[in-house]
Design goal:
single chain; 365 residues; mainly alpha; Cyclin A, domain 1; globular
Length: 365
């Protein structure tokens, strides 16, 4: 009898604890404070950043770096098992080289690359100023819905690839943006926002049917090739290599890299560069910002990235101008995002106005 009474007490107590836990859980599920924004009529203003002419031998034409056989022993000494302690399977030492060689070859496939001059050749009603405004707004949307950065990078990739093949009216540019982010969120997120969320965030400028129809058009344009190595893909690897001699991870260097990489998304001039080249340029500039008197490149970074300083110069200088607000100064979403303490306020850091030419001289391995 005593055992039965104890059992009843335990059951009742367990039910009370479960009910209390459910009540606490319900109280935490508050509706998000969503900011609705309609971009409206995009102004056809003078471009935020001048578009540099395509340069022969730029990132899009770069051949895959293949170290000579005799350098293999030397490479092992320079950077032994860079990702040996990482939980990320793509960073694991035994597989990293093969994985990143595959990703390098994938990023150069024409079907995954936007045209470097699509605004001049394909678009008639969209300028690179409008593209910059759209990307800046999408950075805010990604923050609002707490999307991972991979989703943002894929979104911009889809936009550039779509605009490389189809002319678009400026009134539908925001529709292209939210529909691209919807696809990218479905691909990357565990719990992606719903179609209705993306309608709401545009202040219901577009209907659910319009978003779904544009989603289908984008997928057809991409030929359902949604997976794509992005700047973030390579930045993870290069950041680890840049910190190989550090006793503890340098969060300031890591966040500064993320900041500069997202700034590069704003500028149409960076479209022509391969994602791996932008990632390498970001690491170059991050190291220069934190230690301007020290050469920002090294033989280990050159070996693992496949880029020499001279090959990075054009891309580094564009991102440097973005960092100093000499380009895209009116686009503030990325700058405001990285002024937050959780990102070590890296947007408040500045680098010298001129990068010495000697830093772009090739390093002998």
């Amino acid at each position: 009898m005593a055992d039965q009474e104890n059992s009843v007490r335990i059951t009742r107590a367990a039910k009370k604890r479960a009910a209390a836990a459910m009540a606490a859980s319900d109280s935490l599920q508050l509706p998000p404070n969503k900011k609705r924004v309609a971009l409206g009529e995009l102004p056809n203003l003078s471009n935020v950043a001048a578009t540099p002419a395509a340069v022969p031998g730029s990132g899009a034409q770069k051949q895959k770096f293949r170290p000579k056989k005799k350098e293999k022993v030397k490479a092992a000494v320079v950077a032994p098992d860079v990702g040996a302690k990482s939980d990320d399977p793509q960073m694991c030492g035994p597989y990293a080289t093969d994985i990143y060689e595959y990703l390098h070859s994938m990023e150069m496939e024409p079907k995954r690359r936007p045209l470097h001059d699509y605004i001049e050749k394909v678009q008639k009603d969209v300028s690179h100023n409008m593209r910059g405004i759209l990307v800046d707004w999408l950075v805010e949307v990604a923050e609002e819905y707490k999307l991972v950065s991979d989703t943002l990078y894929l979104t911009i990739s889809y936009i550039d690839r779509f605009l490389s093949s189809k002319a678009l009216n400026r009134q539908r540019l925001q529709l292209l943006g939210v529909s691209s982010m919807l696809i990218a969120a479905k691909y990357e997120e565990i719990s992606p926002p719903h179609v209705e969320d993306f309608c709401y965030i545009t202040d219901n400028t577009y209907t659910k049917e319009e978003v779904v129809k544009m989603e289908a058009d984008i997928l057809k344009s991409l030929n359902f090739e949604m997976g794509n190595p992005t700047i973030k893909t390579f930045l993870r690897r290069f950041t680890r290599i840049a910190q190989e001699n550090y006793k503890t991870p340098n969060l300031q260097l890591e966040f500064l890299g993320y900041y500069l990489a997202e700034l590069s998304l704003l500028d149409y001039g960076c479209v022509k560069f391969l994602p791996s080249m932008v990632a390498a340029s970001v690491i170059f500039l991050s190291r220069f910002t934190l230690r301007p008197k020290m050469h920002p490149w090294c033989s280990s970074l050159q070996h693992h990235s496949g880029y020499k300083p001279s090959e990075l110069k054009e891309c580094v200088l564009i991102i440097h101008d973005l960092q100093l607000s000499r380009r895209g100064g009116s686009l503030v979403a990325v700058r405001e995002k990285y002024k937050q303490h959780k990102f070590k306020c890296v947007a408040t850091l500045s680098s010298p106005s001129v990068i010495p030419d000697s830093y772009f001289e090739d390093i002998k391995e």
